[in-house]
Amino acid sequence: xxxxxxxxxxxxxxxxxxxxxxxxxxxxxxxxxxxxxxxxxxxxxxxxxxxxxxxxxxxxxxxxxxxxxxxxxxxxxxxxxxxxxxxxxxxxxxxxxxxxxxxxxxxxxxxxxxxxxxxxxxxxxxxxxxxxxxxxxxxxxxxxxxxxxxxxxxxxxxxxxxxxxxxxxxxxxxxxxxxxxxxxxxxxxxxxxxxxxxxxxxxxxxxxxxxxxxxxxxxxxxxxxxxxxxxxxxxxxxxxxxxxxxxxxxxxxxxxxxxxxxxxxxxxxxxxxxxxxxxxxxxxxxxxxxxxxxxxxxxxxxxxxxxxxxxxxxxxxxxxxxxxxxxxxxxxxxxxxxxxxxxxxxxxxxxxxxxxxxxxxxxxxxxxxxxxxxxxxxxxxxxxxxxxxxxxxxxxxxxxxxxxxxxxxxxxxxxxxxxxxxxxxxxxxxxxxxxxxxxxxxxxxxxxxxxxxxxxxxxxxxxxxxxxxxxxxxxxxxxxxxxxxxxxxxxxxxx
Length: 495
Fold this sequence. Notes:
This protein is an alpha+beta fold and 495 residues long. It has 2 domains: 5-281, Butyryl-CoA Dehydrogenase, subunit A, domain 2 (Beta Barrel); 285-469, Butyryl-CoA Dehydrogenase, subunit A, domain 3 (Up-down Bundle). The protein has helices spanning 5-11, 35-49, 54-57, 76-92, 102-112, 125-138, 155-161, 243-248, 273-281, 285-315, 321-346, 360-385, 402-412, 419-433, 436-447, 452-462, 465-477, 483-493; strands at residues 17-20, 23-25, 58-61, 64-67, 142-145, 169-174, 177-184, 195-198, 214-218, 224-228, 253-263, 267-269, 349-350, 356-357.
């Protein structure tokens, strides 16, 4: 089944507990801080349900149409279909929604392709396969919270104070499930989702068995609350003045669990610290989810490149050779991520049971590249903007006063553009480089896949070092010591 946007919005009116500071939010679909982003998510669902996008965003299986990101690929063409679907969804939000519905769904799809990577007794492969079919068949929006809170990384602090460690854990087992309590970060997009996948992408110590829970809980589960960061949409005056923050603030929330009951059928790993992370790495899961991230990032780079060009055009700076050089550099940077995305498809990997996976080494290389280059791109855009972003009136209300409007039209127009068009462009640029929304995105792109050392460890793990060491051995085997030195060495060996 494919949901419409209206149907999805209705699923969010489920009594979930959401806090913004001390305010309890009754309905995220109508609250001014969240309603526009909720509409954006609804737009993704409407786009998928549109018959015009049937071949791009859906596929047929088991007699029904499903979202393309649930497709289990068996060929290069299947991988291309998945990637194309990610691209259409990412383009819809210009890459601003990092955890759109295709992100965690890709993780789950990848896991379902290698149930042997979830060995009993501490992993429940049958539960995972059933869960995959359930979210596929119901077009469910799942996000995840898979990192412990920062404070929990110093357990000695809590031990000394004799207070509970805040990390989410299993507090007891019951006949029909487990009960979990504690906190998890960071559930991006949870306010607009249906389920939260709880797990561990950071390695746990062997004795952290109770923290090694992987499960899924509905966003309205009894005892669960979502604590939102400060919404970027709070205090905005108009879409014109803050076009990106207005539509695309996907939200980030801490997940608080107080005696949340999880039925056994929604438990996927339990009491095995190593396995709780391996389910991502020993299946195509981690690669599938982060290929989506690569594609989403590419969409954002395309937006940024266009913005760099438009800002340069608006100031006439595009005629300056040094500016053209900068634009050429930015164009090359954008092309690099495009090449890396396509390389993952063209050099795909075979998996058991006839499945295909994106090239993992290439994917992790792209992931590293993405986290290291975003700030550079933003800095170049910032340079191109110069002081232009500060020269605009506070907001578009200046046009409501006839006298001010006349002055604005007269003094802010340039040979390249009229005053309102320039203001619209520079307000857009400010939302990318200087607003609170922009600041969140700079931080997000730096850390959404984990700290740099974590990403580089993935690349280390996926590299065939024997192959590279063999190249050196081969090269060194092609030559030897000079004749005299060799004879002397042979003589010493016989002494």
